[in-house]
Amino acid sequence: MKTFLSILAYLISGFSVNAIASDFDCRPLQEVKWETLSDGVSWTKYDLEFTPYLKEKHVWENSKSRKVTVRAFKVDYSKNKLLFQSVGQPLKCEPSSERYIHQILSAHNAEVIGAINSNFFVMPSGGILGMAKDENKLWSGDLASLTISSSGVFAIENGFPFLDTKDQFMSRYGNIISIEDANRFSFAVQGYPKLVINHDLQISDGVMDSKRSRTSIGFAENQNEIILLTIDARGETSKTGMTLFEYAYFVKNEQCGVGQKTVLNLDGGGSSSFAIPALNIYEQADHCRNLGNILTIQKR
Fold it and tell me: How far apart are CA 141 and CA 145, in angstroms?
């Protein structure tokens, strides 16, 4: 009888080639090792396989049939600072194999430990969308320029990071935040969508289903530990990348290697970039795509 019921269940499923799972599953293909770059900064790189989400059926596939390359920084914010870098006009990639993030770093005489891409921006001018504030200056205070309703602001106030909605910030400070108000925060960056807050998923499976390289900022249980994360910064194929829904599950899942408590999505796709100048590592999905700004890790 048990066998008959099992066969019947299979027949009802419509002979689907994708076995169905109840939840997201992932597996690092190598041991996740964090290597120290300097006091309070470490990094990792590993390949991850995971179960794709079948949006049309609202279910997870059972087999881990897609892979991404993960690159991440862990940053002790009490010992290091996050500073933006940008350029006044678009740079040229010369030679053509050059990465744009390398060009931005080369244009500044700064001792950078690591870097990723950051805010969404207007192409091709490179104008920053949303808020960008670091310890040196207010780069962009126009909260309303990022019109996406799911955008949020990842900020650090009195040494503590948090993630708020754009509307919460605008209700307190208006559409354009003043320098006086911005100085409440040692760091702030606006992006979309909010992915995870206090371990709770902030998006539904209704988000765009495109598989892309991704970039995000978040923090672990230890709030001093800021996580800067990218996937597939080397490029995109039809068999790699993650949808935003898949990426949200990945970043909140400890077994995937870089589990986090709170996460905001930053500019991704071809802009996804990751650099460690001391190791001559410069990765970018679209190698010469103009970037509005990058987010650098520097010593205090």
Answer: 9
